[in-house]
Amino acid sequence: MKAKLLAACALLGLLSWGCGTEIGNPSNADPAAANFSGTRAEALLNALCSKLNECFPALSFNDCRAGILASTTIDTELGLPANYGAYQTVVNAESASALTASASAANACVAAVAALACADPLVTSAYNGSTPTDFSNIANLLPGGNGSCPEVYR
To answer: How many domains does the chain have?
Structure first.
């Protein structure tokens, strides 16, 4: 009888192994996704700043956002006409429904940015920590490729 009880307890223990861990564990959600405002332009902005903040910790997230929003170098890399304007213009146009993003291309672009290693030339050529207010090369951080960044606003 004791052996059966011990076997039943062991079986219940094995069956319940890992149960209950789905609730209450901290989330591993991407901080860029947590700040998603509803536009693809904002999601991409947050992904760019998350990557830069990861690779250049001295750069604050807010300073990064301000720098990229003022940048005029991101246009054709997202499928926009050359000289489209400041990135803030892209955010405003999408917010006003004057510009429509491809959800799949935008999601692929955000994922591609997030997957970049800090040592990747796309990252190292996009920002220089010794000139912290210069975002003129930020477009370098946008990977090319079909179905990704260059397809976001086509």
So the answer is: 1
What's the whole-number mean pLDDT along residues 115-121? 96
| pTM, two decimal places | 0.75
**Within-domain flag for 133:** yes
CB 59 within 8 A of CB 132: yes
Taking only the tens place, the pLDDT of each residue in 9-57 is 343 343 343 444 334 333 333 444 444 457 999 999 999 999 999 999 9
Structure tokens at 136: 């003129």
DSSP 110: H
| Residue 19 is assigned to a structural domain of this protein | no
Where in the sequence is the domain holding 111, given as residue range(s)? 32-151
Name the DSSP letter for residue 139: G
Distance (Å, whole) CA 26 – CA 16: 21
Q: Does 107 fall in a domain? A: yes
* CA distances for 144 relative to 24, 53, 58, 137, 151, angstroms: 39, 21, 27, 15, 9
What's the mean per-residue pLDDT of the chain? 82
In a domain, 23, yes or no: no
